[in-house]
Amino acid sequence: MPSDPVTTYKFAFLGGFEWLIKLSAPVCPNDRLRVRVEIKNKRASSKPGRGYAAAFHETLNQDDIVVFSCEVTWMLATRPE
Question: Percentage of residues in the chain with pLDDT exceeding 70?
C-alpha cells in the first residue's frame, strides 16, 4: 500500500449489494472530512473475471466523529490470471 495520504486506485465496479448505511452525525459547511475504508474479505465469483469484496467505510469529521458509515459488498471485475 502506498504511504502517501492521497492515492488513486482504479477498479471496475460492477455492482453493490447489501448496503448498510448509518448517518450518525450532521455534517456542516466548512467541516473537514476524511474517509477510512477497510476491506473485510474477498472471494472469487463462480463466473470468470468477477469477484466480490466486502468493505466497511467510515467518514469522520475534523473532531474524529464518525458522521457516516457503510458496510457493502461489491462485485468487481478481476484481472485475468
Answer: 77
Other Cβ atoms closer than 10 A to 59:
20
pLDDT digits (tens, 9 = 90+) for 56-71: 999 999 999 999 999 9
List, for residues 38-54, the tens digit of each pLDDT value: 999 999 888 888 889 99
- Name the grid cell of 76: 468487481
Q: What is the DSSP letter of 49?
A: T
Domain extent, residue 47, equals 20-77
Q: What is the CATH number of the domain that holds 35?
A: 3.10.129.10
CA distances to 12, 38, 42, 47 from 77, in Å: 5, 19, 12, 10
